[in-house]
Structure prediction request, 464 residues.
Amino acid sequence: MAAKKRGVLVIEVFPESLAEDAGIQPGDRLLTIGGEPVLDQLNYQYLVSLFDETEVAWERPDGSLGSAIMENGGDGLGVDLAEDAVKVCRQNCVFCFVQQMPKGFRQSLYLKDEDIRLSFLYGHFSTLSSSDDAELDRVIREHLSPIHVSVHATDPEARIKVVGNPKEGEILRKIDRLIAGGIQMHTQVVVAPGYNDGEVWEKTVRELWDRREGILSLSCVPVGLTAHREGLPKLSDVGSDYAADWVKRWTPEVRRYAQANDGEPWLLLADEWFTRAGVEVPGRSFYSRSWAQLENGVGMIRRFQEHSRRFIKSPKAKGFAGRRALLLTGASFAPVLNRVLAELNREVGSHLRAVAAVNHSFGEMVTVAGLLCGRDLEYAAQADRSAHDGKADWVDAVVVPSSSLRMGTGPTDQYTLPGASAGQGDSLFLDDLTLADLARSLGRPIVAGGENLSQLLDHLRGLD
Ligand code: SF4
Prediction:
């Protein structure tokens, strides 16, 4: 196996920058800044911020070395560095989504990546399995805070069963080390019935609450199963009765913990508990003031409803007048969306409808919009057209969920990266279909919905 090269590869040097003046060129490797080894992009940013003037050393492709004193004033040197290699997780979680993926998707979607740096940068959850003590100390030194941690259970025995790794039971040891170093974190538990619910969950809540100076929030999310669990441990789904019991038991607890936390909700229930239970999501005060864990599906529905209510009364909403569009979404969000669209249609005279697309790719029990594949959406749109006499122009546009699109940028593309707005040419569905493929097959313009009605209108206007 080839030895790992030292330093980080320079891929671009900006004109008239400190780096260019010093003779650094693309292809060189940045070795040290102020005598400290450069580990990756994030570490580079940290190191340059430490110094107003510093010695920088680099290695050229032929192995020769260069160095220079640079007066950077705490800023960058004028280089773009190669992306960091993403770390691979060492767990074997009973509910690991990667292992429940059907065969035949692009290779990068099967990568079990888990990287504390991405946790800090993008809010991805990490079980901390790929972080040894040296890395935790680096997180503390560079103050990468807050981060997002998948706890799953604080009880060591239960955690080992959930994450399938006998060495990763003691999550509290890692958490305590980070908290002692001044790092704060948002945490989550994916609730798998029989594995980490009941007393295990109650213990987790108690032990994390006891550490609330470092634990900013704790969310619980029901486990998601696909139809592709051949050879995997037996796992019960969270059905409507289970979800209804959970909502009944834990909704008052959310309010109780919020009260004890100066009014700021600390314990958070994902929207899926409510959609699976078939009940309305709670009001605004149920969710944290900063919408902590929104990306984790906590409060998305309430925020969408609140935004829609205000938007429908705004002058901009009239831009929807006369528009005919079909909005495809997951089964769990479709009823909520249809109620909002009915109000919009009444108010401004638009003709917007939401239809729940069945997830044929992962299985019908997968009801979230973000896991719909291009072919699922195509099938749902064709079925809707057939129900409208097969007319070629049955709608003016078909809207797909933005969350179902990925940037196709490599190892991290199983996530929708922040800022990745659908509608860009390189956006892919999970099954590699593109928006253009879908438009060709349906003969209708396709747009990504965006986060709210205002963005949807902007995207529809983009077609005009
Ligand atoms: S940490 Fe994530 S990627 Fe790794 S096994 Fe668990 S669920 Fe899968």
